[in-house]
Write a structure and sequence with these properties.
This protein is α/β, with parallel strands linked by helices. Helices cover about 40% and strands about 15% of the residues. Strands 3-2-1-4-5-6-7 form a seven-stranded mixed sheet. A hairpin with a 2-residue loop joins strand 2 and strand 3 (about 45-50).
């Protein structure tokens, strides 16, 4: 069985963070593991509290995982401060895992800031160069590229700018669905009319990691992940008072 590690925050409401990641991994029939960076108090209406783990505890989590069940792919999500970013980078350099997917989580779907201002530079300069692919949404891509994105051509240009900053070593997937009337993710797939999008970014990056762990090439991994998240959205799950979660188990054959 292929193994995938998520390094991210916990979402107590189950729609995003490590909960979404582990559900996605289970749906892909890989063995999911998690190193928690932060506890969050959140639901479909917003984020109401964040409590980070200490760098020493995160280092301990990562060492326990890498020294025992070595992952075939690593997904990195919410990391809110520079000390935790440096801890992750140190362990990635030490253990040298393959197939690193970085979702540069800066702001939640509900608009809450999840990355401290001082941590942005650390994310860009320390962690992003270690990734095989990064998956910013449009607001995040605007920050990373220092340009305004108003049409599909801008998404392509922003991806090129970000990639050039990383010397072309890292693939860049700019996710649609924010501010533009498109969900193409540079792949030109159909847009799905569903306001319940809590955890879509976490889910997509985890699905890419699963596909890379299963030895798909980068283009196939992204395409397969996009198909998965499109199906999870189309299923039409409707929970909570705000932007609800996806049905990560939509394609599982479950006898009720």
């Amino acid at each position: 069985m292929k193994k995938v590690l998520t390094i991210a925050g916990s979402d107590c409401s189950g729609g995003a963070g490590i909960q979404a990641d582990l559900k996605t991994m289970m749906a892909h029939k890989v063995y999911g593991m998690s190193a928690i960076t932060s506890l969050t108090a959140q639901n479909t209406t917003g984020v109401y509290g964040i409590s980070d783990v200490t760098p020493d505890f995160l280092a301990n989590e990562l060492e326990c995982i890498f020294d025992d069940i070595f992952p075939d792919a690593v997904k990195i999500g919410m990391v809110s401060n520079s000390a935790l970013i440096r801890t992750i980078a140190d362990k990635l350099k030490k253990y040298k895992p393959k197939n690193i997917v970085l979702d540069p989580v800066m702001v939640s779907t509900s608009g809450s800031r999840l990355l401290e201002e001082e941590a942005s530079a650390s994310l860009i300069n320390i962690l992003m160069p270690l990734a095989d692919i990064i998956t910013p949404n449009i607001p995040e891509a605007e920050v990373l590229s220092s340009m305004k994105i108003s049409k599909s051509e801008d998404m392509v240009e922003a991806a090129k700018v970000i990639s050039d900053k990383l010397d072309g070593r890292t693939a860049v997937l700019v996710k649609g669905g924010h501010d533009l009337n498109t969900a193409n993710d540079l792949l030109y797939c159909e847009r799905i009319n569903n306001d319940n999008t809590h955890g879509t970014g976490c889910t997509l990056s985890s699905a890419i990691a699963c596909n890379l762990a299963m030895e798909n090439d980068m283009a196939s991994a992204v395409e397969n992940a996009k198909k998965y998240i499109s199906g999870a959205l189309k299923d039409g799950l409707n929970l909570g008072k705000g932007s609800g979660p996806l049905n990560h188990a939509f394609w599982l054959d479950i006898n009720r």
